[in-house]
Structure formats: structure tokens, C-alpha cells
Amino acid sequence: MRSRTPAPLSTSAPGTEALPRAGGVAIDAAVAEAAADWFTRWHAGGFTTAEQARWRRWHDAHADHARAWQHLQSITGALPGLNAGGLGYRVLHGAPASAARRRLLGVAAGVGAAVGAGWMAARTPQWQQIAADYRSGPGERRQFQLPDGTVLLLGTRSAVALHFTATERRVRLLQGQALFTTGHPQGALGALPFVVETAEGHVRALGTRFTVHQHDGLTQVAVLEGAVEVHAADAPPGTLPLRLDAGQATSFERMRALPPSAAGEREVAWSRGQLWVDNQRLDDFLAELGRYRSGWLRVDPAVAGLRFSGVFPVGAVDGQADADAILSMLPNSLPVQVRWRTRWWVVVEAATGR
Description:
By secondary structure, the chain is of the alpha+beta class. It has 3 domains: 21-131, no CATH class; 136-267, Jelly Rolls; 273-350, Phage tail protein beta-alpha-beta fold (3-Layer(bab) Sandwich). The protein has helices at residues 29-43, 49-60, 63-76, 87-94, 97-110, 114-123, 125-131, 265-268, 282-289, 323-329, and strands spanning 21-22, 25-26, 134-135, 142-145, 151-154, 159-164, 169-181, 186-187, 190-191, 194-198, 201-205, 209-214, 219-225, 227-232, 242-245, 248-252, 261-262, 274-281, 296-299, 307-313, 336-342, 345-350. The strands form 5 sheets. Strands 3, 4, 5, 6, 7, 10, 11, 12, 13, 14, 15, 16 and 17 form a 13-stranded mixed sheet that branches. Strands 19-22-21 form a 3-stranded mixed sheet, with helices on one face. Helix 1 (29-43) crosses helix 3 and helix 6 packs across helix 7 (125-131). The radius of gyration is 21 Å and the shape is globular. Residues 33-74 form the FecR N-terminal domain. One of its GO terms (molecular function) is sigma factor antagonist activity. Residues 133-229 form the FecR protein domain. This is Iron dicitrate transport regulator FecR. It comes from Comamonas terrigena.
């Protein structure tokens, strides 16, 4: 969870139009993310006295924190039974995802909170998790069978939403990474197209097994079997889709896709329960490892550029990764030490005396 406290933002300040808003005032995206994280943990139940004290300190530290928290309460408070005890949230969270999504979005629209719901949908992984049909939490890999027979494997902190019709099977990757092994139902025109949509475009399967990873502003695709076609959302008119065959991978932005390259272990190792590190910077590795745990994971700039290689286990399907155990192993390979200031706040810094 991020802890940066911004200066207040004016509603008319340049460049704030895309920021989330609460109480009519633009809120820094990091504050919105932190508020949603606290809100999810609070309503999930099991909040200890110490965690409540930390939440109170965060809430009282800045007016924007309190405003963001109040905004979340105003959106979700209309749901029957949703109260500080968290019972209503747990009931909603445990309901079938599509039903929960319809209830939550329907109530938000009904109370005139569409703007607030849009903020959460666009800005917070927590909201994307609630809005998803299938999801995984920090450190989890989960496997599902979709209604058409496709096998879906989700990596850590991942979420997808389905839109299946009589003519197309469309899956929206809301966040994280997924491995698809497609099924082949028949429609009126033959095999129904299977399309995975991301923020940068979409991937059409051609009878295949492939992975898709949603990054910030970038999508990665790797094909294990068969082939796919990659379509960048804002490619120039007349641009042909990029075909990837088994053993190939690419990355694409909204305007273009990069030429195919050989799919490496790093793209697919997660599906086998591994983090594959090949001469990787420490800060890049910790950014990925941070997806496997809750809380704030920081690296001292003095050691951020250290490089290393290795393979780290992240658990079996439907199991829980022990990211803290991986953190504890780092001093065996690098001149660093790991400091747990709290359960949620970890810093990797230079080892003393080296």
C-alpha cells in the first residue's frame, strides 16, 4: 500500500481532469488506491486493534485521506447490511461475481454515484477484483473452467470479466496475467471466436494455449501452442493483425505491436509456480514480487540497480505464495538486508558492514 501524502489539488488545476474525485475535489491516485486498500481490508473483517490504529493515523494524516474514505462509504453505504462490522461486504464478496457486480454497479447508479464508481473502476485493483467474474488474490494462482470449456489459470492479483454471446466469446483481462487453454464450442457460423481484450487492444485465439499479461500501458502475449492474432486498439487504418505462432511472444501498446520474438521462461514460468529471474535489476524483481503480497515493499536506491539471477517458487495452483520467504532469501545472493518495519511495510536496503 502506498503511503505518499500529496498536496491538495484544486478542481481547476491543469492536468487533474483524469484524477479521481471525492467531494468534488480531485484526489491523488495514490490516495485513492490507499483508501480502497484500507476499505477492502476493513470490510473483509479480522482487523486487529493495531491495524485499526494504523488506519486511524492514515485517515487523520491528511484531509484528502478522510475525503477519499468518506467517498467510498457514500458509494457502498447504500448496500443493505454493509456496515462497519463488514458482514454485508463479506456476503457481497462471496456471491457469484457477475451477480455481485450487477448489484454493486446497479446500486451505485441508482444513488447517483456513477462518477464515484467510475473512479474506482478506473483506479483501483480492489474495485476490479469485485467487478470480475473470476479473480485471484495476492500470492494466489487459481484455475477455473469457463462455460465454453476453456481452462483459465490466473496469476497473482489477477481478474477477468466474461462477455459470451451467441457469436463470440470475449474475455476482458482487468488486471494481472492469465493462461488460456481454449475450448471449441460451435455456433451458427462454426467455431465461435475467442477474444481476450486488454487496455491496449485484443488477442484472438486460433485454437491455442497462450498467456496474456496486463502491465501499465503495455500488454505481453506468449503462445505455447497453436497461434493467435494481436490487434492494437489504435493502430493506423489498414494495419494487419500480428500473428504469433507457438514459441513466439510480443508486447503491444495501443498504437502498435512489436515484432515477434522467442517466448522466454520469464513469460510462462509463473504458470508453473515460479518467478524466473535472469540478470534482472533488484527493483524490477521487487516490483513483481510485490504483486504476491499485501503491503508496501520498498527498495533503497543505493541497491536498486543490483542484478541477479535465480528461480523462486511461488506456490501450487490454489495455494498461497510465501513472498516473505523469498524476501528472506535475498541476502544469500546479494549484499542487502531486509527490514520488516511492520507486517505491511518492508524495506530492502544495503547490508551493513559490506
